[in-house]
Amino acid sequence: MSDAAHAHDDHGHGHPTGIMRWLTTTNHKDIGSLYLWFALIMLFAAGSMALLIRAELFQPGLQLTNPDFFNQLTTMHGLIMIFGVIMPAFSGFANWQVPLMLGAPDMAFPRMNNWAFWLLPMAGLMLMASFFLPGGAVAGGWTMYPPLFIQGGISYDLTILAVHIMGLSSIMGSINIITTILNMRAPGITLMKMPLFVWTWLITAYLLIATMPVLAGAVTMLLTDRNFGTHFFNAAGGGDPVMFQHIFWFFAHPEVYILILPAFGIVSQIIPTFARKPLFGYASMVYATASIAILSFIVWAHHMFTVGMPAAAQLFFMFSTMLIAVPTGVKVFNWVATMWKGSMTFETPMLFAIAFVCLFTIGGFSGLVLAIAPVDIQLHDTYYVVAHFHYVLVSGALFAIFAGIYYWLPKWTGHMYSETLGKWHFWLSVIGMNIVFFPMHFLGLAGMPRRIPDYALQFTEFNQIATVGAFIFGFSQLLFLAVILKTIKGGVKATDRVWEGAEGLEWTLPSPAPYHTFETAPVVK
Amino acid sequence: MSLAQTDKYYLPQPSLWPIIGSVALLLMAIGGTMTMREIDNGGWILLAGTAVLFYMMFGWFAEVIRDSEAGRYNRQVDSSFRWSMSWFIFSEVMFFAAFFGALFYTRVLSVPWLADADTGSLLWEGYQATWPTAGPGLTADGFDFTPMGAWGIPAINTLLLLSSGVTITWAHWGLKKDNRTQLILGLAMTVALGLVFMGLQVYEYIHAYQDLGLTLGAGVYGATFFMLTGFHGFHVLVGTTMLIVMLLRSIAGHFTADHHFAFEAVSWYWHFVDVVWVLLFIVVYWLI
Amino acid sequence: MKQKWQRVGMIGAALAFSQSALAEYAYNLPTPASKVAQDVFDLHNLIMLVCLGIFVVVFGAMFYSLLKHRKSVGHKAAHFHENTTVEVIWTVIPFAILMGMAYPAAKVVIDMKDTSNPDMTIKITGYQWKWGYDYLNDGVSFYSTLSTPREQIEGKAEKGEHYLLEVDEPMVVPVGKRVRLLITANDVLHAWWVPALGAKQDAIPGFIRDSWFTADRIGTYRGQCVELCGKDHGFMPIVVEVVSEEDYAAWVAKKKGTAAVAAADNTRTFEMSELVTRGEQVYQANCAACHQANGMGMAGVFPAISGSPVATGPIAAHIDVVMNGKPGTTMAAFAGQLSDADIAAVVTYQRNAWDNKTGDQVQPADIAAARGGASEAAAPAAQ
Ligand code: HEA
Ligand code: HEA
Ligand code: CUA
Ligand SMILES: [Cu+2]
Question: What mean pLDDT value characterizes chain B?
Fold first, then answer.
């Protein structure tokens, strides 16, 4: 163990190089990059599955897949996009940015940080490998509902354990982030002076620690029902399949805010920079974020309006869900007010941020429509829901990630990206994204169920439009990859501040940010 | 809040332990899956993974202990440890919450629904909603069991764990007064209480399986019973192991009166396990 | 083709127009055929309009700002960044709007949930992958499966008008009657949904959940299973025929007649050729979804019947698998779903089709004998 020998000098040299550097690294910047690369690779993997789904749905009839393989694609697409793309990407941002923004030399627990990352590729490997096992990958939906999930073969057990490992990774990552934020701030950075990105991650980490263990419990019960003869979700033994849904959504509704709060944070950094005006309503932004997080624990059953709960329960979950529109609205209004009377320029990060505000709101509104229980009873498990969550996840979470990458890439690599290519990427993405997902609202309203490989003839046209859009959107992501690679390889040297209107500690550092930063704490007034 | 004014940051060097731990978990997951699916050699892979995990834990903890004893952990780090341990325990609380939630849900909601007007008359005729229950299907098939009584071993176990909470606090007082004998004695008693608890728990399980017909498969009562007490028992095992490490370290002269976070972390954890047990005793054993 | 682009053009137009314009094209919920569906329809329009209004106001302001407050037109940044009054205003106004939405929504919830005083009750059971209907008042029971031919799905034949939305035995109800639905499932979750009737309810194995509708108009209404239930989730449609009361009575009488004939079959002795022909039909309707029409199954998921040790080995074991299923797998217990004659026929068929040339014959009486002790295995969800 070479590391044991080194452990005795605080600033020893002779760091491992090559692959060992990445396997053993305790540097937050390295780990941040690892997270982001992992997310990007997974985006292409899960995105390719989406493209296959869309290709199959281009016309009625079965062409490319059989129904079972189709369900595998849907399930793995959902699982990987959520656990393998959005969450790791946000962790990547947290790793890079939280220490830089707080003037800390690194994360609170650098070794655990490494472990939290390296668990993910292991879980990813297990998930992807299951495609090649007898019976194929899991096909029960990312929501893993029993009894269907009890029926499957070996890949179901593998997936459950992969979820355990990813949960472990998230919990360790979150403990690290929370501790860093609470304990590693440079003198002078009080809580209410932290950049909003840090705030949103603080709350996200809290949500993760509170809900990931619940998911672990839920899938553990699935595992024992499958293999050890328990009857948690089997009525014959006094259990209830719907109980799984309650426990799952107690996790998964906060989870969707885990997938959006850091995005709110990123956008709240970007808009002030390009509006050249401080963020409007900082304090109310913080309170709104916290309110969203608190409310997120009492709305879960809006995913279950059709399971047949008592009217009182339906009313409760309907009202509480509707309430979330209030703090979310506060955020939207504050962003608009930040732009108001600013001096705006429209570089790629800002374009993505603006698209985020606008398109996320569309997704929020369709969420509100779904929150109305009687309407949800018509729309549940139709493409309307698919449209809703892709608006909040693709033009929400994913666009915010794009925005953040363009925004900080110059700081990370020391080079400016190509603005022309960036703009192409932006416009193709926005247009493509809307072509894919807007028609899905109509499909859902007209009654097309989700998770079906084949459909009735009246749904043909909108499906064709969506498929065309998906290929436009998907292939424009190759452009994104090209921009990143090009920027890493070279380009115009970035200044320290990079953006004219940028404020905050990270912009006082040289570009690229040196491998070790803030070994002594900066003082912030 | 921030202690950085007085202390320099501590930054560990690159480390192999995490990647070893990741590989260990990968092996365990693959081996576990194979074992459950009854594929040959799964058990060996599982075992290998577990061995690697233990190797990693020993190595990693040893390194941390060395760093700590070398005085490399300043107040900044100490306070990070405190935060992280608190959040870790919070995550454990939520893990148990899932199972307590399941127990609550079945007792209060799903079991009565199974016997209610429509479901009971059309699907499970004659089923009476009672608690404990093995559920309508198993009951109709003639499955029967005796629930675990509260006032035998479980009550004794409650006493044991509650006393262990006292002994560990007493040990802590000893440490703070720099009274090593009190520290070591207190720890030893706590370890002993933990071990006896586990012994009785094992005996109870054997009794349940052999005499009461109470098994994991005994409907939702059996499932919640064994999951809750089982995961709790596992936590006692982990806690006792950590206590033993603390005991050995105390004997080796580690810890000082004002610098002993490892000890405190273990005692927090032990108190948490204690509280979970009390809840368990009330809702799993007593109120049936 | 032309029509498609017309429709695309209309998306924008339809959004801009009033409620009634929204109803005209396929950009909204299907035309309601029941009061509840109508209420939901109206509720949805109301909420869409409110959202649209908010959208226009908020993004009107944003786009105005994007145009006017840009650096390239020389706008200098202001410095304000806080105002408690506006924060309170834009907290309170949305809250008030939401209250305005919540009230009508709550009324519909309460109406939807009230299943009391039905005129008739139908128990609906979801199976992988078909629906079972039991008319509790009229004593009619049957299964309803997809009737679209495989060739259409595989693209070997022209797709019919009701591709994937057609069944062999539709559910029939009288118009204007309050129908209570008791919905459950036999194996995994399903969900019963007919959009135009405004009724959707998950089917949960081992539990009964209810819903209701009153169809306002005579006609045929189509829907689908909307809860992922495995491989053929996309292939278990629902067809409800709403008919006049006289037609309904006639339908019930006819159903009872066929049921009597089927019951008589259970006590008959069949010729080998009869068994095989009937068995093939049963097989295609119930088994081919998994074991495939050619008996080859799907590697790793569904075993082949052709050459299977079970289907060529002892008859009793074969009958046992078919009647009681294999717990923990998708192989369901068919004892409760198929009649003695059908089971006898399908087992005979399996033992003589493809590579299986056992020459064995199974008669309904054999099944009746096998039922002897195990008939309660028909209890749903008891795996
Ligand atoms: C990033 C992820 C994300 C986010 C942020 C949201 C946000 C919201 N979601 Fe969504 N949702 C998902 C991801 C997300 N969702 C996913 C993945 C699913 C499907 C899971 C599955 O089944 O596979 C889902 C499903 C889902 C359902 C279940 C649908 C069904 O299956 O039947 C519902 C129902 O209530 C719902 C509601 C909402 C609401 C009310 C919000 C609110 O937070 C939105 C609030 C925002 C706004 C309202 C817009 C801005 C506000 C204003 C401009 C103020 C003024 C507005 C008014 C006064 C109206 N969502
Ligand atoms: C963050 C989450 C996220 C993201 C980003 C996406 C992105 C996309 N999603 Fe998906 N989606 C989900 C989360 C997400 N999705 C979830 C949770 C579900 C529910 C699952 C379930 O029901 O269980 C779902 C379900 C879902 C469905 C419904 C399937 C069904 O019900 O059967 C569809 C259908 O169109 C779809 C489409 C798409 C498309 C076209 C994209 C596009 O944005 C993808 C863009 C494509 C790329 C980015 C890939 C680019 C690749 C190439 C250009 C090829 C090059 C190849 C190589 C280099 C190898 N998604
Ligand atoms: Cu039955 Cu989906
Ligand atoms: Cu939700």
Answer: 91
Give residue B8's pLDDT.
57
C327 has a pLDDT exceeding 70: yes
Report pLDDT digits (tens) over C128-143: 889 999 999 998 999 9
Same domain? C177 vs C240: yes
Is the pLDDT at C16 greater than 50? The verdict is: no
Q: Ligand 3 — pocket residues by CB below 6 A?
A: C 126, 129, 190, 225, 227-229, 233, 236
ipTM of the complex: 0.91
What is the rounded CA–CA span in Å between residue A482 and residue A491? Answer: 13
pTM (2 decimals)?
0.92
Q: What are the tens digits of pLDDT across the range C29-49?
A: 889 999 999 999 999 999 999
Query: DSSP for A69-123?
Result: HHHHHHHHHHHIIIIIIIHHHHHHHHHHHHHHHHT-SS-S-HHHHHHHHHHHHHH
Nearest CA distance, B186 vs chain A (angstrom)? 31
Do C89 and C141 belong to one domain? no
Give the model's pLDDT for residue C376.
39
Distances (CA, A) of A366 to A299, A483, C7, C26, C48: 16, 33, 21, 17, 9
Label residue A250 exposed, middle or buried (CB < 10 Å: 0-12, 13-18, 19+). Answer: buried
Show which of C229, C247, C262 is a domain's final residue. Answer: C262
Tracing tokens 């409800």 back to the chain, one arrives at C240
Query: Which of C213, C239, C262 finishes a domain?
Result: C262
pLDDT tens for residues A426-462? 999 999 999 999 999 999 999 999 999 999 999 999 9
Radius of gyration of chain C (CA): 28
For residues C13 and B78, give the distance between their C-alpha atoms in angstroms, rounded to a whole number: 64
Using alpha carbons only, give the angle C115, C119, C125 rounded to the nearest 5 degrees. 65
Closest CA to C117 of C212, C5, C201, C243: C212
Each residue of B134-166: pLDDT tens digit? 989 888 888 888 888 889 899 999 999 999 999
Q: Residue with the nearest Cα to atom 12 of ligand 2?
A: A78
Nearest CA in chain C to B122: C208
Closest by alpha carbon to C51, among B192, B16, A325? A325
pLDDT in tens, A106-123: 999 999 999 999 999 999
Per cent of chain A over pLDDT 90 is 89
Domains, chain A, ranges and CATH?
24-508 (1.20.210.10)
Range of the domain at C309: 266-382
Residues C109 and C148 in one domain: no
CB A273 within 8 A of CB A499: yes
CA C185 to chain centre: 11
Distance C210 CA to ligand 4 centre (A): 24
Are C316 and C340 in a shared domain?
yes
Q: How many structural domains is chain C composed of?
A: 3
Cis peptide preceding A349, ω within 30 of 0: no
Interface list for B 125-154 with A (CB within 8 A): 133-138
Q: What is the mean pLDDT of chain C?
A: 86
CA B266 to CA B251: how far, in whole Å?
16
Structure tokens at B2: 């921030």
CATH number at residue C34: 1.10.287.90
At C301 the pLDDT is: 77
CA-based nearest residue to C333, from C186, C231, C235: C186
Q: Which residues, numbered 207 to 236 in chain C, qualify as contacts with chain B under a Cβ-Cβ cut-off of 8 Å?
A: 207-208, 210
B210 touches chain A (CB under 8 A): no
Q: Are B136 and B115 in contact (CB under 8 A)?
A: yes
From residue B186, alpha-carbon distances to A278, B172, B249, B275, C95 in Å are 58, 8, 14, 20, 58
Q: Going by C-beta distance under 8 Å and a sequence separation of 6 or more, which residues neighbour residue A455? A: A57, A60, A448, A463, C164, C234
Do residues C53 and C134 both lie within one domain? no
